[in-house]
């Protein structure tokens, strides 16, 4: 009986040992994950591009009095259209008129004294030094009278050109200082429209420009209140230094004041630029292709040989609510993953979805 129990125990031990000795099953091969992709086109040629822009006045001026005094009259209001030479404001002239009277009396006396001195010095009745002193006094009195008359003229503030009163900074009867701002004017003949140009498009814009008046139109302005109507622009200038925050350059164009709609400085517009045919534009890809987990703007590019994807750092611009324009970091023919990028890892096995599969997801 004992021998039988021993044999049974030995058999069980042998069976367990044999089971432990079996090899673990090999790991299952990694299942490739399907991804939605977009193959970048070779078509990089120029096209129309739209840029948000701001309307400004071509002629802008801040007017002030050259002398201090009490404001006696304000003759225009904000928004008024004024002609060149039109009187806008007037200081109280009383003190200045009194100064002219005093200067005129001093001048008359100095002139009379100097006239007598001319006769006296010819006859040797006064010294040369006395004559020179009277001459100096006369010239100083003449200059003082001229300055007093000029100061009286400075009490009138006139429009330097036809313009619209954009801002009034002071009320009537206030005491004003010399060179204190009184009005801001903006011209009515031409408007300026400014917008920011990305660095990579700067050279293309420079290739397109010509100085007025022979410039060929390659840019237009659109306004929300004008529907699809476009207004031609004439190139003015490009800033030489980039904005430190955006790394863009300010472009400025001229535009004639439209007759049908009211366009005022400060309004928003969209500038449409027709770039040269050889201009590099970039690629429009879905916003969902952008991966910023690393703190940089990256796009995953699929490699058909390794069946994996690699993140590439890119430069881009917003180009709609759901798309971006990649201007740097990608190459023609790249296969870009455009969905589910937040789950991707380096080395992960992938396969591109077929066209009909991608269409079902759209």
Automatic annotation (TrEMBL):
Alphabetized GO MF terms: efflux transmembrane transporter activity
UniProt-annotated location(s): Cell envelope
PROSITE patterns hit by this protein: PROKAR_LIPOPROTEIN (PS51257)
GO cellular-component term (any): efflux pump complex
InterPro entries (alphabetical): MdtA-like_BSH, MdtA-like_C, MdtA-like_HH, RND_pump_MFP
Domain Multidrug resistance protein MdtA-like C-terminal permuted SH3: 285-341
Record-annotated Multidrug resistance protein MdtA-like barrel-sandwich hybrid domain positions: 61-182
Keywords: Transport
Domain Multidrug resistance protein MdtA-like alpha-helical hairpin residue range list: 99-155
Keyword Transport set for record: yes
PANTHER family: EFFLUX RND TRANSPORTER PERIPLASMIC ADAPTOR SUBUNIT, MULTIDRUG RESISTANCE PROTEIN MDTA
Recorded family membership: Belongs to the membrane fusion protein (MFP) (TC 8.A.1) family.
Protein known as: Multidrug resistance protein MexA
Species in which this protein is naturally found: BD1-7 clade bacterium
